[in-house]
Design goal:
227 residues, globular, six-stranded parallel β-sheet, alpha/beta
Length: 227
Amino acid sequence: MAIPVTARPYEFNLDPARLALVVIDMQRDFIEPGGFGAALGNDVSRLTAIVPTVKALIGLFRRHGLPVVHTREAHRPDLSDCPPAKRLRGRPGLRIGDQGAMGRILVAGEPGNQILPELAPLPGEIVVDKPGKGMFWATGLHETLSERGIAQLVFAGVTTEVCVQTSMREANDRGYECLLIEDATESYFPEFKAGAIEMIVAQGGIVGWATPLSALLAAFEGALVHA
């Protein structure tokens, strides 16, 4: 049964039988004070502020028994999956693989690379360590989702204009219908978040749809009332 969700640029018809939530890169190094993001001079409080909304969104999917996917931007300890074109950016000492306040930066298994404890995956939920900005590159995620019959993806996480938008564009190219929860995503730069969302919904939803969590909650509640 389709559930209509008020969204931009027009109503999104959600199909719970084909739906999954994707939570992008809610990692300690990006979000917590003292981590990699803060070391780059960013105001991490903007990202920290969305944690309760993301937690509520995850809770919604769990209550309804719907799949949840968690991603981490993570590289092998030997950095064999991190090309120089990606690693050699920014200031020396603050590059991928360097030692940071929470362990080696963006290296799998390091403390800073872990998902925030309050958003931690439950057993059975999909966890993807992705070496790129997008969630499909070198991860096998598309095959996993296809095996489960997933055709619609709800997106949350950070940052809106980088890993979230990249993953949505990759998903769109692979035939998924994508809905971004506007208050469950964030950027260090408010103008970048706003611009990315407008790009997503432009031209009749060229990449996907966008809506606040309140609209998604209302849609689920309405569906339960009429069930």
